[in-house]
Amino acid sequence: MAKLDPATVQLESLIHAVQSNMSFIEVTSAFKWADIGWHVPPGVRADFEIKYVARGQIALQQAGLSIAGSPGDLFFLDNQKGHSCEHGTFTLFSFGFNVAQNAPEGKRLYEQIQAIFAKLPQKLKLDIHGRMIRRYTELNKEISVRSFGYEVNLKCLMVQLLIEVMRICLVIRSSASNITPYQYNKYTDLISDIIVYLQENAGEHIDLHELGGKYMLNPRYLNRIFKGATGFPIFRYHQMIKVEKAKKLLSTSGLNLLEIAMELGFESSQSFSKFYKKMTLITPSEYRKMLKESE
Amino acid sequence: MAKLDPATVQLESLIHAVQSNMSFIEVTSAFKWADIGWHVPPGVRADFEIKYVARGQIALQQAGLSIAGSPGDLFFLDNQKGHSCEHGTFTLFSFGFNVAQNAPEGKRLYEQIQAIFAKLPQKLKLDIHGRMIRRYTELNKEISVRSFGYEVNLKCLMVQLLIEVMRICLVIRSSASNITPYQYNKYTDLISDIIVYLQENAGEHIDLHELGGKYMLNPRYLNRIFKGATGFPIFRYHQMIKVEKAKKLLSTSGLNLLEIAMELGFESSQSFSKFYKKMTLITPSEYRKMLKESE
To answer: Chain B contacts of A166, Cβ < 8 Å?
Structure first.
């Protein structure tokens, strides 16, 4: 794994802290806000807030500092310090969360998150507009409707939003990534679609030109993006899926080698065995024997 | 709150157990499976599996019992007992998760989930097809692509799937609910859309006929569904949103009463104050004074 950007590292710590101690976290607000400024005194309202500027310009003040925000900016605010914003022409999304500090673990978690917020940049420039707005809107809906289980669902949505931010950061802030934000935004869903397609067609021949046609992309370009995102070209990835499916069928299905070979699109059990050995260094029969012995 | 169906109660316990101890949970598999039977010996593979029948018929065996499954059925499987299924004509979705038992809390969690699974019906009949398939497909994509943070994301997706199942159960298994599964399926997204619309138009007059036209539904029918889902008719809900927004503006914005009244669609600060007092029993000025004093 390539060296990560400091913001990505902090985001990962934040996600880890939240998911390990989810029962101490409570998402207390999620809303869309336009034009009217505000003044949150220190220590009031939610412990932490994360705001996304969707439109216009804001001038945010925290701890004597003024930070300008424009569309695509994400703000991490520790409300211990308070913060304020002038009236203006803007739309932003916000959610806030509290950390229950009644137990020592909760107090520790609060301090941990506070330390992470202190190390995170106050403003993170993200170029992925539609996705962020979708995530915030989900939070907004969930807190508005308050259906059964919404408290837990809100925490999950918060973690998922942070993971999305982390993934975006990984792309736009890491020099090791060979995907541009534009490609990330445009192709993330495409890549996962293709992978599911490859899985559901583990036994079929995959034609790169056909696949390119399906998504209206140059096949070689599609392959390059796919490799950029997954680390493997499409054909190789399809082979890995075949091996995984073979293992599953060998271990649990009771089908014989020929039946498994047919299921995976091979013409004979011999060609299947040859392929399997090339990929895993043992034959399918050896694998099955190993499983039987270990039971 | 009305008395809950026993399955809903168990699902709630499961969700609670998982979210309180998320770091001990690992989603180990998520896949779509067709036609080929399987045999999972006791204690092998994932600790627990939850399977959804999407097409066809299955005959599932567990602990000497055979249970027939058809589209819409959700199976809860404790793999300590093992389970198997015959070849057939079917498609199902499955995900499996493990509980790390190296620490005492993990061991306790495992036993807790095992007890919940023992009390859950092995098969739960759900009528909400599209939503379940969408949830399972999300899990499937996430585990296939394995992007940064996927382990945590998978747990969140699992919890969200369980919450959706719980909400469906609440509708279809609770006699207290006045929403049919058909309405749940059809209108859940609609209701949250309307709520967000009401929030974004807190200062506008809401015309029920216009709203009905927007969603191509009889306005009275729309209002009835909305009340069934939220407990309040649309007009009343809009008033409650106005109060919430008023409180927010009074507490943080620095706007004066007339400005807030205008923002919320009142013609004067007097009519705003009258409305606010009717809803909260104190006037906006009194509320602001209270806040000042408590700082």
So the answer is: 148-149
